[in-house]
Amino acid sequence: MKAKACLFDLDGVLVDTARFHYLAWKDLAARLGFHFTEEDNERLKGVSRMDSLEILLDIGGLRLSQEDKVIFATQKNNLYLTYIETMTPEDTLPGAREFMVAVRLLGIKTALGSVSKNAAMILDKTRLRPLFDAIVDGNIISRAKPDPEVFLKGAELLRVPPPSCLVFEDAVAGVEAAHRAGMKCLGIGSAEVLKDADLVVPGFTGLTPGAIAF
Ligand code: G6P
Ligand code: MG
Fold first, then answer.
1. Which ligand is nearest to the CA of 136?
2. 88 alpha carbon to ligand 2 midpoint, in Å?
3. CA angle 47, 201, 6 (to 5 degrees)
4. Angle between helices 17-32 and 66-84 (to 10 degrees)
């Protein structure tokens, strides 16, 4: 690995919360009277809570007042919180913790690059926090992915130039954000979905920093 810093997305990369987001949005869609598929859900990954609601309403062909949007986004988040409240260190995705430890042993810096406002709770529940040199989450940035702000902020906090940073992402919007930040991106998940990533692996199991070319 040539990178001097690794920037990790959280939901769907280090922890399986992408599933919880999907279940909570699906529940809201059902209450609004339409079906929300896993394929639809790909469009919400890496996207902020309110932008996700806009996409969901668009899929359902619904228009709501700003007041109602805030109520529904809060309801979705409350259901999502009931899922993440039960998380433990065992809910870290297979191989993710080991990969982060291996990277740090090589002297490579690590940062979180998530637009979630719930990241702190997840890092505490899973005890992942000590593995990061810097944390960038939805409470300190103003523009969600695909805007590059979240990753540029991470590079700045780590004092590593963007071309020396490598991003780990499971979302189409996240791959675009990494590239717009001038960083390489390793996709975690399906090569079909993450076709713009520089390399795609199904997960961290068996992945070593030495096996990554950039
Ligand atoms: C991540 C997830 C998105 C989610 C966003 C905001 O990027 O991939 O699906 O909408 O965070 O999360 P929050 O926890 O603040 O609602
Ligand atoms: Mg993600």
1. 1
2. 19
3. 65
4. 140
Residues 115/46, Cβ–Cβ less than 8 Å: yes
Task: Please give the distance, rounded to the nearest whole angstrom, from the Cα atom of residue 11 to the centre of ligand 2.
Answer: 4
What pTM was estimated for this model as a whole? 0.94
* 10-residue stretch averages of pLDDT, the chain, 214 residues long: 97 94 97 96 91 96 97 98 96 97 98 97 98 97 95 98 98 97 97 96 96 90
Tally of CA atoms within 13 A in the half-sphere of 212 that contains its CB: 26
> What number does the ligand 1 atom closest to the CA of 114 have?
7
Task: Say whether 153 sits in a helix, a strand or coil.
Answer: helix
Q: Which of 11, 40, 137, 198 is flagged as catalytic?
A: 11
Q: Are 7 and 168 in contact (CB under 8 A)?
A: yes
